[in-house]
Amino acid sequence: MTKPIAAGADADQFEEWFLASVSADPMPVDTLLQALADRRSGGDPAQLDSWAELMEESLTEQGRGDDVLRVLRLRSGFHTGNAAFKAYCEKKLSSLARNDTVRKALIASAGFDKTISLTECFRRLDTLIRMATGLYCTDKTWGFGVIRNVDPFYGRVIVDFARKPGHDMSLSYASETLQFVGEDHLLARRHRDAAGLAALVKDQPAEIVKITLRSYGPVTSPRLQEILTGEGVVTAAAWKGFWDAARKALKSDPLVVVPPKRNEPLQVLERERSIDESWFLALGGERTVDGVFALLDSLEAVMTPAELPAPGRQAVGERLAFLLRGFGDRDAAVRARVLMAVRLWQVEAAQVDVAREVVPLWTPEVFLAASESLTSKRLEGLLHFLVAEDRAKTVDLLIITLPSMILNVLNVAVEFLLAQGEDARMATLLRELVGMRKAGVEVLFWLAKRPERLQTWQLGTPGDLAFQILQALEKNYMGDRLRAANQLGELVEGREWLEAASGTMTEVQRTSFIRMLRAAVGRVPVDTQAMIGRLVLAHPELARLMEDRTIDESDNRPKGGLTSWRSYRQRQQQLQKLVNEDIPKNSRDIAVARSYGDLRENFEYKTAKEQQNILLRREAEMEADLVQIKGTDFAGLPNDLAGLATKVVLQHADGRRQQYYILGEWDQDSERGIISCSSKMGKVLAGHKAGDTVVVPADQGDDTITLIEVGALPPEIIAWAREAG
C-alpha cells in the first residue's frame, strides 16, 4: 500500500513518489488525486497537469472509466477556457464508453458541444450519472419534484413536480436545471410528512429555521423569509410571530450564529464554537493557508481583536508569520491576506513587520497577481489596508495597473478610486486610453455601462465608443479576458444600448458602423446581423443599406470570416497531414517509448506525450478554424470603403506611396502587397474612404497617411486567390 507523500516534499521527491504510486497495483487513485489537489497552491500547473495525465493514461489502459472521469475533472482546472482540451475530454469519455450506450447518451447530453465551461460540463455529467428513479430534486421554474423515469435511449427524463406532475424534460436540459436534494431537505420533508412539518412550524420554529439553513446553506433573514413564505411553509401573515419565536430560541442555541445585521447570513455550525486550549493546539499544528484562515474566522466569530489576550495574539502572530515565510513569496494573495490579518489581530512588528513586508504589494506585477486571486470583498479590504499604509503609493499603483486589470478587479478598483476622490486622475487616464485606442475590453465594458462618465470626463460619445468596442472584440482572448469580451458583446448587441449609442452618431457614422458590422461577421462574439436589424429599426433611413447585395437574403457570400481559396486549401492540406501523418506517427512514438519500461525515467515517453498534447490541440484549433472561416475569390464583393476585398493606395507626408490588397483572414504575400483583413494595418484602414486621413502602424511607431484610392481588386489578385497555391 502506497503511503501518502509528506507535505513538505520537494518537486523531485514528489515526482518519484507519484510515479511509483501510479505503477502500484491497485493504483491509489484517491491518494494521488488528493496529493495533486494539495499541491495546486504554489505548484507548477503544467507539471501537475503532466502528472495527472500520466494517471489518466494508466487508468485508461485499465479500463477504469469512472476514475478517468475524476482525473479529467481535476485536469480541467489546469485548462480553463481551453476549447481544445474540452474537445479532448469529450472524445476521451466517449471512447471509454464506446460499449456502454447509456453512458454514451449521458456524455452526449452533458453539453461538451455547447459554449459552456468545462467545469459546467462535468457538473452536468455528474448530475446525469446520479439521475435515477425516486430521487428528490428542485428546478428553478417548477420547484420541488421527484424523478419518475429516466430514459437515456430517448434522452428524456420525467419528473413529478409539485406544480407540474409528469413533466417531460430532455436529459440535456435536466442536467442544466435540476438540483438533487437529500431526504432531510426542507422540501423533501414537506413531501414525505407535510403534517409533521406543519407541527414543527407551530411548536418548534427554531428547528424549522435550522432545517432550512441545512437545506439552503447560510442565508440572511430576508432570504429566509422569502424561502419559507414562498414555499408555503409559513404564511406571510404568520411570519412575524414565527420569526420572533424562532430568533429568541436560536440566540441561545450554541450551534446557530444569529448575526446582528439583517444583511449578514444566519448559519448552523457542525459543533459548538469555543476558543480553548484545543483550538490553539489546532492553530499551532495547522500548516495550510485555508486551514489557518478558517481557524481565524472561527476566532473572529466569538471575540474581537481587542478581547484576544496577549498569549493568544502571540500564537496568532506565529502562525501568520509561518504562512508569510512559507507562501508569501510565491503567492501574492497569501501575502496580502496575511498582512491584513496581522493588522486586524494587532500582531507585534517583532513577529511580522508590516512596513517591510507590504513593499512587494506596491509592485504592479505582485499587486495584479494578488488582486486576481482575491474575492471582491477581500480585494476591497486590501485596498483599504494599502491606503492606510500609504495613500499616495496606493493611488499611483491603481492608476498604473488599471489598464491591465481583469474585469472584477477593475470594478472594485475604479469604485475605490472614485470614493477616494480621484475623479480627475481617472478622467485623465481614461482620456489617454480611449484617445490612443489602447483601452482593453474591461475598460470599454466599464465605460459602456456608464455613458454619463463619457460626457463628464470628455471621452466622446457612446457612438464613438461603439467603434472602438467592435475593433476590440475582433481580438482573440482567453480566460478572464474572454469572459469580459463576451460580457461586452452581450451588452452592445442589446437593443437598449445599441439604440442609445447609435442615437449619438451622425448619419455618416451610422453608415460606417453598419459596414464595420458586415465586415466583422464571424470575427466578433456578437450577432452582427441582429445588430444591423436593430439599427435599421431605430433609424429607418438606413434601410437603403439593406438593399446592398452584400447584406440581403440573396447574398451568396459565405457567412462568417473569409479567406482566399488558396489559403483555405493550404489550411485543409495542413490538417490532413496532421491527422494522417503527424498524429499517427506520434502515437507510434508513444507506444515505442512505453516499451522502454520505467516511466519515471522515461524521457522519450514524456517528450512524446508533450508532443501529443500539442498535436491534438492544433487539430482542434484547425478544425474549428475551417468551420468558422469560408473560402472565396473575393469577386463581386463591395469595394467602396477600405476593407476586405479592396485595393488601397496610401500616401505618406513625405509623398511616398504604398499599395495594398486587403484579402481574408489567412492571406498574406508581402511581394504582391497582399495583407490580411485581420492584420493591424487591415483593421486600421477598415471602413475608411478615399480622402480620409488615417493613423497607421509603421516601423517607427505610428504614421499619419492619406488614403488616396480605394477600389476593386485587379484580376491578377483574384486569380491568385483562386489558385491552389
Care to describe what's here?
There is one protein chain. Helices cover 56% and strands 10% of the residues. With 725 residues, it is of the alpha+beta class. It has five domains: 11-130, no CATH class; 186-268, no CATH class; 284-450, no CATH class; 563-632, Transcription elongation factor, GreA/GreB, N-terminal domain (Helix Hairpins); 646-722, Chitinase A, domain 3 (Roll), CATH 3.10.50.30. Strand 1 and strand 2 (143-151) form a beta hairpin. Helix 19 packs across helix 21 and helix 24 (441-448) packs parallel to helix 27 (479-492). The longest helix is centred in the last third of the chain and has 30 residues, at 565-594. It is globular and about 85 Å long. The relative contact order is 0.04.
Please state the CA-atom Rg, rounded to the nearest Å.
Answer: 31 Å
Total strand segments: 14
Give the overall silhouette: globular
> What is the average per-residue confidence, as pLDDT, rounded to a whole number?
87
Class by helix and strand content?
alpha+beta
Strand order in space, largest sheet: 4-3-2-1-5
Uncertain runs: 548-560
Count up the domains: 5
Helix content: 55-70%
Instruction: Report, as a whole number of angstroms, the end-to-end distance.
Output: 61 Å
